[in-house]
Amino acid sequence: MWLRDPSPMLLAAIALGLVVLASIVSVFAAPRRPDLPPPLEGQAILASPTRAESVTETPEKSYAPPSVSFSSRAVAPTRTTAPTRRAAPSSRAASPAPTRPRPKPPVVRPGDLAPLPASRESRLRSHGGGPSTFIDFVNTRESTVVVHWINYDGRRQQYAVLRPGQSYRQQTYVGHPWVVADERGRGLVCFEPARQTLRAVIR
After folding, report:
1. Are 179 and 151 in contact (CB under 8 A)?
2. Pairing state of beta strands 198-202 and 132-139?
3. By the number of CB atoms within 10 A of the CB, which of 37, 94, 103, 145 ranks highest?
4. What count of Cα atoms within 13 Å lies in the side-chain half-sphere of residue 142?
5. pLDDT per residue over 141-167, tens digit each?
């Protein structure tokens, strides 16, 4: 009966119900906006970037202690570098080599022949054609020495034996070398005569 002759009150209630129903359907049927603004601090809604930040922050805090332990281990090798100080003895050990004084050539005084090292004996030999001259041999050593002439074959030929402090004059020729040795035959010094008479000082 009420459907055939509806009253105004009933029509108003039906219209209000339809409006409410339509609003409810529109709310649930409306799609969520993807372009929501980023949430402000204090809001309950959390966007995905903040979740990523929270995830990345937690590992950093959790791995902080191991990083400290690794840094302490990295410092340990620096302490092992201390043994590099031991290199100093090697440099000190090498220092005596330069400090060893090399034998300086004797000072040739006026009137003296320039002495030649005994190692030159193997390359010395007499050759003729030079003028006659003299050599004054002087033994300033504390041991006996023997004076040898080096002949044309490069061999020794004994001429005199000088005791400590003794000297003597030997006639020779320019181009005839001489060698002085000790009593055991070890060469001490060699001399080559000059045109004028000079001394051969044996030191």
Report:
1. no
2. parallel
3. 145
4. 0
5. 999 999 999 999 999 999 999 999 999
